[in-house]
């Protein structure tokens, strides 16, 4: 190891054990947002880290006034950390684990050990993801790119009143930069390893005296990759991803505002290779067993995803204390995912997943605020459909079934909810928080069958079947906020979240297995503190205890003529206990220190399915997570300012699957180090260089058991790049 690497590793490890902050200095209120080009600090800059304004409770509040544990990452921080997708948020948060369940797609978001490890498109994530207040119904829809973002708010714990639907783990709010009357233009071009290049930008300003607009776009392209298909000799890792968003905000009077947002995008990237182990035929890939980034594929692994949607948000100020808000939205997503899950040139498990997902949502909220009382009440409706046809080429695996095996289904869901949330400061420094939500959900699961055959001639294993599921549940929270001073909040809450039941969307040969699994519930007890100890020092900490009942797990749970098949079912009960803390400190002008630590202890307390042992830890729940950064900026001259950032993230060992506690599904702990350095050229231009995974750590992001054995996905190796940014 070189002297440089030793010194760099020491700095990165030092930053990792600092406590990462919940907030940042941005004082965004959802307007034009922070700049994409982070300024370097000058010698005369204040050390005050300022306040951040969030909308976690559907109204603008200082982060220190909200009794919810959360991480807030500004758009500036996302850009400097190289965050391009939801998965990348893991490196900036504590007790949050986000990874793709299937190749390059279907992210699983686990917050404090609660998540959904299923890759079927018809099930809902345990952490609700909201883009500009619009809920995304399927985990298959979460592989979108993050661009022109004002901030991301990651709320931890059940959010059973204001959010409500399927938020046993928490919620992620992604807030775009909003149009304003001030002319603005931001652009960035970049180039990096594997011939990766990207262009993103946004322009906005006043179109008329009452109408503002903003247009943003991003394209991410890569010609090569860090995986090799030994069947063809081709490098795998091409990226072809583009998206755009148009927003129009109309304010004809002080009492009314309407914002129309429309977006569209596509992803035609390569699908990741599957590194297979213990498959039925091993002689072909014997020469590559010790090459984790080399695997086989008999097909052309790729994605062909398209999405578009629109939302209309209208706010009426009915009087000085009363506001009515309407949010109407439509989303459509089409997914084609072609992969070779056996990792060889054989036709053992070459898959094609084809989905169409559409959803319409409508929310009405009435907010009242006067003196010491704040109330928000409303109703919510959503309708979504999922159509699916999955197929597998199996001629070398199950030749008696032909060359193809697959399944189809169609699912329709309607959900209704009514909710009320209140905050009452009944005596000075003490505020009572209470919320209640009633939700009714009805699902129709039909056109369900498994088919097999050859040369396009298929037979059904059983006549198409159907089933229905309905649930009505009450969720909510109650809490108490105590503010001994304006800059310190001590809070305690009891909250309950519900994730609705549904149907497993995997292969089955038994029509009687097409029956719903039940709702899961999480009851959380939490205490925490948020304190601006000094103008330059913010400390936050929380302790929590969860009662997790009827937990929904995915795994090899079902028997069939082909052996064990995979699906989702209620596995039993669990408990989750943990601590987390974060800090931000600016000791001198130009020096910014951040860090976070999270600890969780999870345990299956009651198992009702074979193979899930009581006492097992939950999947995707590392016991310890650490992350942090050290940033220093200085003035070089009147026109030149420079900065350098070292950051790192560590997670302890994690199990990707706990069914039968397989050792192949356990990944040891690992540390990833990153760095960025930049120079601001005057007030408009910035040049920066970056490196990610600086020590070239080899680590797995997923382990999945299939009909041919274990398959693995690996994280990206060391990469470098350079960016040029412009801000008007």
Automatic annotation (TrEMBL):
<keyword id="KW-1134">Transmembrane beta strand</keyword>
<dbReference type="Pfam" id="PF00593">
    <property type="entry name" value="TonB_dep_Rec_b-barrel"/>
</dbReference>
<keyword id="KW-0813">Transport</keyword>
<keyword id="KW-0408">Iron</keyword>
<feature type="domain" description="TonB-dependent receptor plug">
    <location>
        <begin position="65"/>
        <end position="171"/>
    </location>
</feature>
<keyword id="KW-0472">Membrane</keyword>
<keyword id="KW-0812">Transmembrane</keyword>
<dbReference type="InterPro" id="IPR000531">
    <property type="entry name" value="Beta-barrel_TonB"/>
</dbReference>
<keyword id="KW-0675">Receptor</keyword>
<keyword id="KW-0732">Signal</keyword>
<dbReference type="InterPro" id="IPR039426">
    <property type="entry name" value="TonB-dep_rcpt-like"/>
</dbReference>
<dbReference type="InterPro" id="IPR036942">
    <property type="entry name" value="Beta-barrel_TonB_sf"/>
</dbReference>
<keyword id="KW-0998">Cell outer membrane</keyword>
<feature type="region of interest" description="Disordered">
    <location>
        <begin position="282"/>
        <end position="304"/>
    </location>
</feature>
<feature type="domain" description="TonB-dependent receptor-like beta-barrel">
    <location>
        <begin position="275"/>
        <end position="694"/>
    </location>
</feature>
<feature type="signal peptide">
    <location>
        <begin position="1"/>
        <end position="26"/>
    </location>
</feature>
<dbReference type="Pfam" id="PF07715">
    <property type="entry name" value="Plug"/>
</dbReference>
<keyword id="KW-0410">Iron transport</keyword>
<comment type="similarity">
    <text>Belongs to the TonB-dependent receptor family.</text>
</comment>
<dbReference type="InterPro" id="IPR012910">
    <property type="entry name" value="Plug_dom"/>
</dbReference>
<protein>
    <submittedName>
        <fullName>TonB-dependent receptor</fullName>
    </submittedName>
</protein>
<keyword id="KW-0406">Ion transport</keyword>
<keyword id="KW-0798">TonB box</keyword>
């Amino acid at each position: 190891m070189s002297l440089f690497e030793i010194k760099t590793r020491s700095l990165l490890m030092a930053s990792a054990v600092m406590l990462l902050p919940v907030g940042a200095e941005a004082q965004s209120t959802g307007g034009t947002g922070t700049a994409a080009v982070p300024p370097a600090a000058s010698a005369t800059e204040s050390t005050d880290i300022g306040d951040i304004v969030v909308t976690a409770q559907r109204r603008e509040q200082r982060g220190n006034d909200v009794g919810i544990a959360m991480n807030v990452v500004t758009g500036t921080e996302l850009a400097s950390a190289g965050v391009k997708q939801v998965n990348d948020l893991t490196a900036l948060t504590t007790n949050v684990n986000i990874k793709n369940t299937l190749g390059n797609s279907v992210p699983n978001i686990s917050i404090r050990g609660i998540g959904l490890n299923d890759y079927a498109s018809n099930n809902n994530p345990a952490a609700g993801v909201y883009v500009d207040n619009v809920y995304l119904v399927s985990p298959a829809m979460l592989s979108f790119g993050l661009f022109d973002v004002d901030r991301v708010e990651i709320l931890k714990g059940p959010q059973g009143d204001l959010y409500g639907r399927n938020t046993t783990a928490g919620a992620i709010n992604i807030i775009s930069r909003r149009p304003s009357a001030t002319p603005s233009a931001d652009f960035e071009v970049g180039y990096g390893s594997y011939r990766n290049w990207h262009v993103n930008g946004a322009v906005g300003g006043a179109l008329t005296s009452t109408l503002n607009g903003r247009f943003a776009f991003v394209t991410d392209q890569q010609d090569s990759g860090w995986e090799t298909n030994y069947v063809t000799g081709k490098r795998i890792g091409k990226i072809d991803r583009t998206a755009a968003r148009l927003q129009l905000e109309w304010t004809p009077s002080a009492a009314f505002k309407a914002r129309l947002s429309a977006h569209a995008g596509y992803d035609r990237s390569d699908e990741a290779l599957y590194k297979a182990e213990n498959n039925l035929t091993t002689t072909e890939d014997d020469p590559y067993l010790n090459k984790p980034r080399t695997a086989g594929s008999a097909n052309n692994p790729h994605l062909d995803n398209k999405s578009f949607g629109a939302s209309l948000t209208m706010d009426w100020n009915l009087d000085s204390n009363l506001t009515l808000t309407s949010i109407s939205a439509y989303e459509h997503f089409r997914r084609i995912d072609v992969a070779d899950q056996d990792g060889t040139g054989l036709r053992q498990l070459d898959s094609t997943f084809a989905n169409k997902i559409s959803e319409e949502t409508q929310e009405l909220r009435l907010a009242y605020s006067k003196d010491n009382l704040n109330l928000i009440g409303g109703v919510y409706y959503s309708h979504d459909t999922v159509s699916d046809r999955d197929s597998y080429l199996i001629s070398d695996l199950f030749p008696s079934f032909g060359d193809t095996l697959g399944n189809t289904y169609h699912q329709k869901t309607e959900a209704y909810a009514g909710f009320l949330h209140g905050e009452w400061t009944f005596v000075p420094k003490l505020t009572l928080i209470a919320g209640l939500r009633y939700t009714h959900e009805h699902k129709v699961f039909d056109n369900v069958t498994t088919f097999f055959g050859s040369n396009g001639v298929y037979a059904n294993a059983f006549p198409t079947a159907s089933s229905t599921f309905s649930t009505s549940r009450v969720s909510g929270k109650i809490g108490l906020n105590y503010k001994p001073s304006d800059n310190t909040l001590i809070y305690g809450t009891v909250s309950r979240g519900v994730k609705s039941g549904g149907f497993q969307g995997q292969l089955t040969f038994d029509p009687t297995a097409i029956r719903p699994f039940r709702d899961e519930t999480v009851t959380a007890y939490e205490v925490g503190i948020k304190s601006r100890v000094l103008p330059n020092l913010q400390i936050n900490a929380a302790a929590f205890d969860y009662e997790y009942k009827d937990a929904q797990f995915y795994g090899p749970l079902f028997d069939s003529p082909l052996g064990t098949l995979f699906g989702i079912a209620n596995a039993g009960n669990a408990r989750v206990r943990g601590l987390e803390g974060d800090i931000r400190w600016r000791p001198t002008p130009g020096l910014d220190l951040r860090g976070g630590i999270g600890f969780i202890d999870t345990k299956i307390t009651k198992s009702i399915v074979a193979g899930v042992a009581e006492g097992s830890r939950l999947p995707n729940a590392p016991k310890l997570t650490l992350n942090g950064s050290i940033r220093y900026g200085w003035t070089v001259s009147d026109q030149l300012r420079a900065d350098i950032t070292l950051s790192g993230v560590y997670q302890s060992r994690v199990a990707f699957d706990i069914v039968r506690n397989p050792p192949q599904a356990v990944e040891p702990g690992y540390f990833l180090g990153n760095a960025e350095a930049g120079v601001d050229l005057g007030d408009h231009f910035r040049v920066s260089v970056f490196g990610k995974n600086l020590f070239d750590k080899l680590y797995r992001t997923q382990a999945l058991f299939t009909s041919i054995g274990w398959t693995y996905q690996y994280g990206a190796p060391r990469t470098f790049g350079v960016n040029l940014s412009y801000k008007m």
